[in-house]
Structure formats: C-alpha cells, structure tokens
DNA sequence: AACTCTACTTAGAAATTCTTGT
DNA sequence: ACAAGAATTTCTAAGTAGAGTT
C-alpha cells in the first residue's frame, strides 16, 4: 500500500510539473515602493466648520486623497462620500479629530485642493531640462526594478511599482467606492523567486511577509488588496516569452474550436428540444455565447457593482417580442456587463430559442435568474467534454478572430492604396469591437474635432465649387478661342477639380471613420481577441508595413506572430 | 455541489508623450 | 516654438476559470 501511494504521489507530481512548471530560475529586485507621504506645508490647511485645523499626518494624507479628487464626479456621489467619511473616521487617532469632525459637509478641502492644482500646474510648466531630469530618474527606476531574470533571459515586468494608497474608485455603481485603499507595507508582500536566486532586499527596517519559491506560478510578488481582500500580483510584461507563449496557445485553442464548432452548434441546437430543462438552458446559453459573444457570467457577490454575463442574466435583462422592427422572434437585451458597460441589442432568434426563453421566464420575477438550472462551472464542464481546453471565453476569441479574417477578406481589394487598406483594417477591427461590445466614453474633444472636420469639408466643397466655375470658364475660353495656352489652362483646371474632389473624399472618409469610432474602443480587441497571425499575414499579403497597424508595444507583444507568420496563414 | 482561494486575462479611464498645424 | 489634439502608455479594476475544501 505504501509503495502504491508513493508511486501515485510521484506520478501526480510529475504530471503536474511537466505541464504546470512555468520556469526553472527566477531572480528579481522585488517591487518598487511608492514614496512616503509628504505632509502639507504649514500654510496649507484643512478647515472644519470654518475653522483651520491641523491634522495628524495619517489623517491628513487621507484628506489629500479626497481633496485631489474634488472636481471629479465621484465626490458628488453619496456612496463615495459615506465610504470615505467612515474610513477616514477609523484612522483618526487624536481625540480632537475624533470629537470635532462629525460631518463631511462641514469639511472644507478647498485650500488643499487648490494647492494640488497649482502643484500640477507647476509640473506642467517645468522647463525642458527639469523634465529631462525626471525622465532620467524614471528610466533609472525602470532599469533597476523593471526587469527580472527568468530562465536566464532578461524580461520586462508589467507592473513593478506597487499601487499607491488612495481612494478606491470602482466602475459603475460600486458599493465600495470611496473606501480607503491602504498603503502596502513590505510586511504585506509575498515574494516569489527561484530557489537559488538572490532574494530581493526589503526596504530598510522591514521584512517581507513571506518568501517562497514556487515555479508553478508566474508572479514575482503578491499582496492582499484591502478593499475586497483579493490577491494582487506583480507579473511579467506581455512582451515576455512566458506571456507570449500563453497568448499563442490561446489562439491555437480558438483555432481548434474552429474545427469543432459545427458539431458543437449541432449539439446545442439539439439541446433546445431536450426533455431536461437544464439541457435546454445550457443549449440556449451556449448559443448566446456563440452568437452574441457574451461573457460566461460567473456569480459575483453583492459587494460589487451589479453586472452580469450570460449565465447570470436575469429575467429583467431581456424582453421578448413576437414581432419587432419587421422581424419575428426578437430578443431585446439590456444589461450592464463587465466594467458596467451597457449591452443593448435587439436580435432575431430561432423560433425554438424564443419558445425556450418564454419557458425559462414563466412564473419568474424580474430579478430571478434567467438560467436557473446552470452555472458557468457546469457549462464549462460540458464544453470541456466537447473539446479539451474549451471554455466559454474561447468562443469570444474564436468569433472575434474569425470575424476579423472574414471582414479583411471582404474589405480588402488589390487596387487599394495603403491608406485605404488601413481604413479597411480599422473597419474590420471595428466590426469585432462591436461584436464584443467594447465601448468607451466619447472623448471630451469629440464634438470639437468633429466640428473642425466638418468645417474643413465645407471649405473643401466651396473650393470645389470655385474650381468648377473656373473650369467652366476655361472650357468656354478654350472653345471660343482655342490655343495652346487655353488648352493648358483647361487641363490645369480639370486637374485641380479632380485633386480637390479626391481630398474631399478623403476627408469624408475620415469623418465616417471618426464618427464610427466615437464610442467604440478598438484597442481591447486588437490586444486581446485578434490572433496576431491574421494581421501579420494580411500585412504581408497586401504589402502593408506592419508598423502601420501595430505600434511599438503591440509589435513587442506580438513578436511571436511577426516572427513566424507567412502570408498564407489562415486562422 | 457549494464555497473559498488563487492565478491569470481582459478592460476602460486617466496620465503622459508624440505629432501636427500654425 | 507652441498649443491642441491624437496616440500611446500606465494604471488598476473586474472579469474568467481551475483547484482545493467543506
């Protein structure tokens, strides 16, 4: 028995080490700690109920966090104010502070606020030389803390600076907004490094929480963040080999799904008519994930914003329309997804899906789960049985990359200029961003820049009118009294009209592009969902320099694809 | 099977730097 | 040379999902 157990353990360990060992040597300097708090100068003061009040450094620091945010919308929210005030209260040590400060509305941070506004103004107005000094300082820091040695290679770290203390700003209606995010002490930090590497030195007079040598994980340091008590990590930059290989693997999994997707689609359609409710729900859920690129929708606690994904959709998030906009069996989705970004969509669905949805919502309240018989865990288990490595999120990657490839094929033609090809690429990229619902707040300068563009267009149109008039005159002159000179003039005027028309077309194209990008964020899909091999192959096939599509960071991240992809690559 | 813990990817906002037109 | 606007980088929150625990 003993031998069997021993063998079992060995086998398990070997199995584990062969596919979960992430590195064999790892050395780094540990995280960089943000600078200590610098107390306010004596002439800058906090006022309570009209009276100046000197605060202890600890409470003063917290007050500066709030004061700095004063002209941000956040500080006008009651939840934010209450969370801030109660966390601030807990840090107050002096009896005077505890006794006196009773309500936020009597707190006056305006002098402190003004002080920081002026400070940042000063920063902006620094001379070139002063800025250069700062830049060098930063690059020295990067040089010292920004890299690690992993398996003998110098790799860039993604976030070597620890997060400074401040007030927590959640996304959307977050119940914890305004809470104090505490300063991280070395005693909070776990270091992970190679067994025989040099152990990073903690700041003088301090010690690490723990030093471990676990090569089954990729992080260099971790701590528990105090708002939710979740772990945070210091990890490598996407340009690293470790991350790059993982990224490549992700797209290879998505490509395997391509081989399997027909049979999976057949299966979920079959599930729509299953005797079992859970199979029907699973079938419809996977259909949504596949068709609409919805996220899985894990359960979440109520200590965060109320957002949902597919499996956590509630009855109130969909409306069924027998007929809508001239189409049958329409489902109207309206819910807040990740980062409280609104998902709003009206989609026609198969009759059987419509019937099922009606069934799922029967006798339920608006706040009940739409899919009450399934969870993301069960759903992923089913998917994994269809194909090893398949989970809900693979569908997003698969559908995003497939869409890019299809759109690129559709939108690119040989006669196009490089500029037109780039526009096509952006269009294809945009189709993906829309599919994945990647939105952003409209840029503050949007209206202005749009107006500017429209003025330019108007001007161009006037120029064209003018040029046409001149052309007409030239024509007439040439007809009345033909001569070499009149002919030349005519040709010149014709060219001018043509040139101006082209410029107008370009401006109008720009206008469309700009308008369409108003609330669409292209970056997220480009960085996380689109197999870089598709882009690289397209660039090669159509002689578009890859730098026109990928900036430096993106080229670093996708080095693996740029190196190995030829123009015949198919996703 | 529910719950907890952990590790990793994905996300938009904000800050910073670069580019462009004047 | 400089200011405005665009592009890029930084920051860190918020997801997904696997594994372990009860």
From TrEMBL:
Give the span(s) annotated as Disordered. Answer: 470-489
Q: Where the protein is mainly located, per its record?
A: nucleus
Coiled-coil ranges (or none): 117-144
Alphabetized InterPro entries for the sequence: DNA_brk_join_enz (IPR011010), DNA_topo_DNA_db_N_dom1 (IPR013034), DNA_topo_DNA_db_N_dom2 (IPR013030), TopoI (IPR001631), TopoI_C_dom (IPR025834), TopoI_cat_a-hlx-sub_euk (IPR014711), TopoI_cat_a/b-sub_euk (IPR014727), TopoI_cat_euk (IPR013500)
Q: Where in the cell is it found?
A: Nucleus
Any GO BP = DNA replication
Query: Which reaction is recorded as catalysed by this protein?
Result: ATP-independent breakage of single-stranded DNA, followed by passage and rejoining
Annotated catalytic residues: 529 (o-(3'-phospho-dna)-tyrosine intermediate)
Pfam hit, one: Topo_C_assoc
Q: Where is the signal peptide?
A: none
Q: What class of enzyme is it?
A: isomerase
Q: Which residues form the DNA topoisomerase I eukaryotic-type domain?
A: 167-543
Known EC number(s)? Answer: 5.6.2.1
Q: Which keywords does this Swiss-Prot/TrEMBL entry list?
A: Coiled coil, DNA-binding, Isomerase, Nucleus, Topoisomerase
Question: Keyword Glycosyltransferase on this protein?
Answer: no
What GO annotations for molecular function exist for this entry?
A: DNA binding; DNA topoisomerase type I (single strand cut, ATP-independent) activity
GO CC terms: chromosome; nucleolus
PANTHER family noted in UniProt: DNA TOPOISOMERASE I, DNA TOPOISOMERASE I, MITOCHONDRIAL
Q: What does this protein do?
A: Releases the supercoiling and torsional tension of DNA introduced during the DNA replication and transcription by transiently cleaving and rejoining one strand of the DNA duplex. Introduces a single-strand break via transesterification at the specific target site 5'-[CT]CCTTp site in duplex DNA. The scissile phosphodiester is attacked by the catalytic tyrosine of the enzyme, resulting in the formation of a DNA-(3'-phosphotyrosyl)-enzyme intermediate and the expulsion of a 5'-OH DNA strand. The free DNA strand then undergoes passage around the unbroken strand thus removing DNA supercoils.
Per the record, the similarity remark reads: Belongs to the type IB topoisomerase family.
UniProt protein name: DNA topoisomerase I
């Amino acid at each position: 028995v003993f031998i069997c157990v021993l063998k079992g353990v060995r086998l398990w360990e070997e199995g584990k080490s062969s596919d979960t060992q992430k590195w064999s040597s790892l050395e780094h300097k540990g995280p960089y700690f943000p600078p200590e708090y610098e107390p306010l100068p004596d002439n800058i003061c906090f006022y309570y109920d009209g009276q100046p009040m000197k605060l202890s450094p600890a409470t003063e620091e917290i007050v500066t966090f709030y004061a700095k945010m004063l002209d941000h919308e956040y500080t006008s929210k009651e939840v934010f104010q209450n969370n801030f005030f109660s966390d601030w209260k807990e840090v107050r040590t002096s009896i005077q502070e505890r006794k006196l400060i009773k309500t936020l509305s009597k707190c006056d941070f305006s002098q402190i606020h003004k002080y920081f506004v002026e400070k940042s103004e000063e920063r902006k107005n620094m001379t070139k030389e002063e800025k250069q000094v700062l830049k060098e300082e930063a690059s020295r820091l990067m040089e010292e803390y920004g890299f690690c040695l992993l398996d003998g290679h110098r790799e860039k770290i993604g976030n070597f600076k620890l997060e400074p203390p401040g007030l927590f700003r959640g996304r959307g209606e977050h119940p914890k907004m305004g809470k104090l995010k505490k300063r991280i002490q070395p005693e909070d930090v776990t270091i992970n490094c190679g067994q025989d590497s040099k152990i990073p030195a903690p700041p003088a007079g301090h010690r690490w929480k723990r030093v471990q040598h676990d090569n089954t994980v990729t992080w260099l340091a971790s701590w528990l963040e105090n708002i939710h008590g979740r772990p945070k990590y210091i990890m490598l930059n996407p340009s690293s080999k470790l991350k790059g290989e993982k990224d490549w693997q992700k797209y290879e999994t998505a490509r395997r799904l391509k081989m399997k997707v027909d049979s999976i689609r057949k299966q979920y359609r079959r599930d729509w008519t299953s005797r079992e409710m859970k199979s029907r729900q699973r079938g419809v859920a996977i259909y949504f994930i596949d068709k609409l690129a919805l996220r899985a929708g894990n359960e979440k606690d109520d200590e965060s914003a109320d957002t949902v994904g597919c499996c956590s959709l509630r009855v109130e998030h969909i409306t069924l329309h027998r007929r809508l906009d001239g189409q049958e069996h329409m489902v109207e989705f309206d819910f807040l997804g990740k980062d409280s970004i609104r998902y709003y969509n009206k989609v026609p669905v198969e009759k059987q899906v419509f019937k099922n949805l009606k069934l799922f919502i029967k006798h339920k309240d608006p706040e009940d789960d739409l899919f009450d018989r399934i969870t993301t865990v069960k759903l992923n288990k089913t998917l994994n049985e269809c194909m090893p490595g398949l989970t809900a999120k693979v569908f997003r990657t698969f559908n995003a990359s497939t869409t890019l490839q299809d759109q690129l094929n559709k939108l690119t033609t040989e006669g196009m200029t490089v500029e037109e090809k780039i526009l096509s690429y952006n269009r294809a990229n945009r189709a993906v961003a829309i599919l994945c619902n990647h939105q952003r707040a409209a840029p503050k300068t949007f209206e202005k820049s749009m107006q500017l563009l429209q003025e330019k267009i108007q001007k161009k149109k006037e120029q064209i009118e003018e040029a046409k008039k001149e052309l007409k005159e030239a024509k007439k002159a040439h007809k009345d009294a033909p001569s070499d000179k009149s002919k030349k003039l005519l040709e010149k005027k014709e060219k001018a009209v043509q040139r101006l028309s082209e410029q107008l077309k370009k401006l109008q194209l720009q206008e469309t592009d700009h308008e369409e990008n108003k609330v669409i964020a292209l970056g997220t899909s480009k960085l996380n969902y689109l197999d870089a091999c598709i882009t690289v192959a397209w660039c090669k096939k159509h002689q578009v320099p890859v730098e026109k599509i990928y900036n430096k960071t993106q080229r670093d991240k996708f080095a693996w694809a740029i190196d190995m992809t030829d123009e015949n690559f198919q996703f």
